[in-house]
Amino acid sequence: MMLLLFLILQLHYNYNPADYPDAAGLIIDDRVELKVDKDFKKEQHRIFRVYIFNTRGRERYADFFEKYNSKRQNLILLKTRTVLESGKIIQPEKKAISDLSTVQGFIAPAYKHYRTRSVSYSDVNAGVLLEYESKKTDKYKSSDKHISGIVVFQKKDPILHKEYSLRIPAKVKLHQASFGGVKFKKIEDGGFVDCCWWVDSTARLKSEPGMIPLEEFAPRVVFTNFKDWSEVGGWLWKKFEKAIVVSKEMKNSVAELKGKERIKVISSIYGDAVKNWRDIPLGVDDVGYTPMRADKVYKNRYGNQIDKCALLIALLGAADIEAYPAYISFSESKEKLPLPDYFKSVVVAVPYEGRFIYLDPRFPERGGVLFSLYGILFKENSNFPLMPDIVARYAFIVKPDTFLFSKVPGYKSDIADLDMDINVTSDRSITGTVRSRLTGICAVIARSKLRHKKEKEQIIAMEKLLGQLSTGAKLKDFEIKGLDDPESDVEISVQFECLNYLIKEGDRLRFVIPPPLFTFINIGSIFGMEERIYPFTVWTSYGIHSVLNINFPENLKVIYLPPTVSVDNPAARADVRYRSEPGVVKIEKRFVFKKSDYQPDEFSELQDVYNRYRSIEQQLIILE
Amino acid sequence: MKKLLMLGGLLLLTCTAGLRYPLVLDEVAGNDKYSKANALIVFDSTNIELHRDGTNHIRYHKLVQVFNSLGRKDFGEVTFSYITIYDTIKVLYAAVITPARKVIRVPEDNITDMPMPAWEGSKFYIPNLRIVKIVFPELMDGGAIEYVVESINHNPPFDSTFDWWELFETTEPIREKVLRLSLPFDMPLKYRVENGEISHTDTIIKNRKVHTWQKNDVAKVVMEPSMPPLSTVLTKLLFTCTNFWEDYSRRYYRMSEPKLIPDSVLIDKTEDLVQNARTFDDTVRALYEYVNKEVRYVETRLIGKKGGYEPAPVSFTFRNKYGVCRDKAALLVSMLRTAGIKKAYMVLTNPFIEKMAKDMPVVSQFNHAIVAIETDTGYIYLDPTVEGSVEYLMPFEDGKAVLVATKKGEDIAQTPVRPPEVNLADITASGELTLDKTLHQTLLIKGRGLIDLQLRRLVQMMTSEQIKQIFLKGLKEQYPQARIDSIQSSEPKNFSKQMEIKVFITIPDYVLKIGKEWHLTSGRTSSLSFGAQGIWNLEERKYPLFMGIKVATRVRSVLKYSKMLRIKSLPEEFIYDDDSFRAHIRYAGKNGVIENETEIVFKQVQYDPDKYLQVKKCIKKLEEYQGKEVVLVEK
């Protein structure tokens, strides 16, 4: 009997990596059980068991973390152990279990009570099982009677069983929706209701660049006891409105704008707040929906995204301009179950001429938030910049007694406009000028790389960028405008020369058509795959347009010019035109992403456009 | 009475510090000298009071004026770290000075003392490493921050001695920087300045000698791409109370030895690992591989009187199969000795520093631990921390300063320097060009040294779709229609075989056809396109260009083509060879086969500004050459 039991245990713990190709481990059991009592005090029970397949699995799972708020919660570890292949059990060393700060707590003192319990397991290698079990309880009852969440049921490794269960007082009316094969059951038990969602045998999530958020497509469940969107709006407003406090200094700061044109007032207040209040790089995901009081943000001169929204709304209000918080979701949420968990970002919506202007208060410095991006500028938003994660997304605008859904404008124009004039000299060298005008993602990245660089630093940065043309390309002169003003385009003008740029082969000279210099974007970066499984995003629809004028000495004749390209499908469009006259070749190119988000089966359409746009035939001109 | 007056004076000085400096701010306001800065470090002082037993108090006092949002970002918060076994940090004073010169004290809520954060993937989860953070409110352009922070050390890492190093340059200009050291007058002290000049004075006050180093009007450092580690090129002050490196060698030996004693379980395991070993090399290899592969890298709470310096007991590291560099090194030393290789020792090193002056034993420059085995012909060095490294010592550790910890004590030494071929990327490409202009090719990638390590780690740590994406991305930049049919790799954990990755590629759009000519763009393959990164395109450099390693790349390719074609032209041979760089590219073709051999060797770890210009010219020529084509023509 003992032998049988032992054998069963052995079988139970022996999983064959060959059955799970490319997996680092096999998640055997991943459970969260959340109990909410009648006072809305919560207790969470967590179980996680994973079988390690290889070194990658060891690196991924051998150190385990669980976050909690030390001021409001207790976290007890019930079980942490390594189970070897032999069945031997090893407990972690005492010193390997610690409470560390969270990254949020490190970034902002307001969150210094947030903690991460870390466990470093012992003797972890392929073939072991790691087990974790914890209980996290609220210290106090909660005045907030709302429950909501989105739980994703897929991870980077395959899962044998994942379960999320929720025990709530029976009087709580919970609505739920599950997607992607997640099963659901509900049981009434005395004065409580037990809801349980689970999946068995989920394949691992593969890695693809540019994937849209998992909450949009992976197996998941959404649950909420918010009755409707009105209740969500009221809840969000209640958290926000207390922060809209205007101090005397704030009133004085906007007094001088009285009488000015409305758009100028908005622009002035926005520009001041964005540039002069330091960004704390934390979003609503990190810190929740309650901003710091606006007068405190004003005084401190720093704030995270929602804090700076409160500041903007308060200052605009002081200048008699209506403004409201607008919570941003990746996809449209109007028809979905009402809950705030869709919103990962918040900006300010200002009613203006029958529509809204959206003001994104983030203007992070080099190395800051997201991709160090400083806002896409476009006329559809009255030339106020928005971060790429906001453009063409969906806003839930919350007012004191109402709410509305709105769509953030999409970007319709080119975000990089490039002009190059190149003169080929008789010794195979080139001299030239590049002029680029950047908005959108290109402006965003340009600012992140160049802003606040001083003279010598700018020269170094520009020389390095010019190296994309050729090593030895010499920077003769340059000018950059618009780096410090998020409401302007970025304009770059560069004069250069490059010796021996053309390659001589016999009587022929090969001229490699230069890449789009000083646009700061590589549209080819999403094409490093043959096919895709998951939906993906390029953040915003955009186009890149370039015109090249290449002047040759008259004794040279063009013997090879690339063919014209014109391809247009629902995913993208590309046009490349060449015009050859004696002594000059003009090239005009445009590539446009028509959408921001794509389904996997649209990738081949995109690829088709890109292949034609960047084919080998398009890469050079031959002269004789 | 005198003491009281002195204390009173000191107190007055401290209290008025916040009042004095706003005047200084007015002095610097509008000064063109600082217009190119994001901030100005107006005053930066470090005062060290050292006691005979090695304990100390260090007081930091800094005043920084900010000019723009980057200055506000860089100086709007300051952090200090300390390890509770050794130090405590106290914030004595912190304030913001507005442009109008109003002084605002930082409220207590803005000063936090917390355990280090759990950064994802950091591998350091040390709750007794704490962070003190000051967040400065109301900081505006033209304003300033000031703080006085004290670090109190109650347990020096090495008893009864002390050493220190500090940079006197940074990425913003410094108006005045002072470092003051007060120590018992009979305590020995040596100091040295590298890469520049710093003024020095000393005086005796009562029983203490006070040294002052000062530098004023320090220009900001303008960063260049691929700079060497800053501590090796910027003006640096080092000082020490230890006379000889041998002293530190003996001290570290005494600190580590008690931790190297194996228990019976470890002894059994060691004997098991070496039971089939016939030679010294077999024994070393078996034990090195075990520690390298089976013990993962992570640091948890520091324990022991000298936790963070002394290794964990080897039985602890073995039982848990984790540790950091000193723990892994200690385990390997213990296992080697158990297996009969008695002359195995702990070694202190720093993979970024080549030379440490013989007469300047500053042990705080070390940040890594490895192993040395003494043989008749010198030391063999092993680094078991670099997981996946077949080489005992990674090539980036060549020529680096090492201090072997022995009972009698050793002087500072250097690891041996190997030729560039110790890091070798060896690529063989065999392909066939079909009449539909498609290239079918097999790439076999092998390597030595760091390249071999990278190949092993690629296969171990990435999924197959990630590996495919990495290769495909590079291919598709030139050939948008390129496909990878499959990728095969050898077993990364098998150190007895060279790591290999085989990539099977199809490129339908390989050929540019112009009339009857088939143009094969020869050289602009992503692996050899140096210009793309722009690192070699600076007109001039002030600092060396730091490659980190010497590296050689060898590519041999064989391309078969149809009998319906003949070779019209091949690029001529390219040869360049000097003491810093070699490039040799050769084509040959006949009977339906084109062969190419390419060798590129970076012979130096870093290139001084003059050498950089010389190599840059060669890189330019190489790029021009790479633009040449193989041209076939239809018969």
Brief overview, please?
The complex is a heterodimer of chains A (624) and B (635). Chain A is 19% helix and 38% strand. Chain A is an alpha+beta fold and 624 residues long.
What does this structure look like?
The complex is a heterodimer of chains A (624) and B (635). With 624 residues, chain A is α+β, with helices and mostly antiparallel strands. Chain A has 3 domains: 2-227, Immunoglobulin-like (Sandwich), CATH 2.60.40.3140; 231-407, C8orf32 fold (Roll), CATH 3.10.620.30; 414-623, Jelly Rolls (Sandwich). Helix content of chain A is 19%, strand content 38%. Residues 5-11 and 366-377 of chain A have low confidence and may be disordered. Chain B has 635 residues and is α+β, with helices and mostly antiparallel strands. Chain B has 3 domains: 20-28 and 35-241, Immunoglobulin-like, CATH 2.60.40.3140; 247-418, Roll (C8orf32 fold), CATH 3.10.620.30; 421-634, Jelly Rolls, CATH 2.60.120. Helix content of chain B is 22%, strand content 37%. Chain B has an 8-stranded mixed sheet, with helices on both faces. In chain B, β22 and β23 (439-448) form a beta hairpin. At the A-B interface, α2, β6, α3, β7 and β15 of A face α2, β6, β7, α6 and α9 of B.
Query: Biggest sheet of chain B, open or closed, and with what strands and sense?
Result: 8 strands, mixed
H/I helix tally of chain B: 10
Largest sheet of chain A: 8 strands, mixed
Shape of chain B: globular
CATH topology description of the largest domain in chain A: Immunoglobulin-like
**First-last Cα distance of chain B:** 107 Å
- What topology, given as strand order, has the largest sheet of chain B? 5-4-8-2-1-10-13-12
Strand content range of chain A: 35-45%
Identify the CATH architecture of the largest domain in chain A: Sandwich
Q: Which pair has the most extensive contact?
A: A-B, 93 and 94 residues
Q: Tally the structural domains of chain A.
A: 3
What is the CATH architecture descriptor of the largest domain in chain B? Sandwich
- Helical content of chain B (DSSP H or I, runs of 4+): 10-25%
Would you tell me the structural class of the helices and strands of chain A? alpha+beta
Percent of residues in beta strands of chain B: 35-45%
| Domains of chain B, number | 3
Portion of residues in helices of chain A? 10-25%
Number of strands of chain B: 35
Question: Over all CA atoms, what is the radius of gyration of chain B?
Answer: 30 Å
Uncertain segments of chain A: 5-11, 366-377
Query: What's the helix count of chain A?
Result: 12
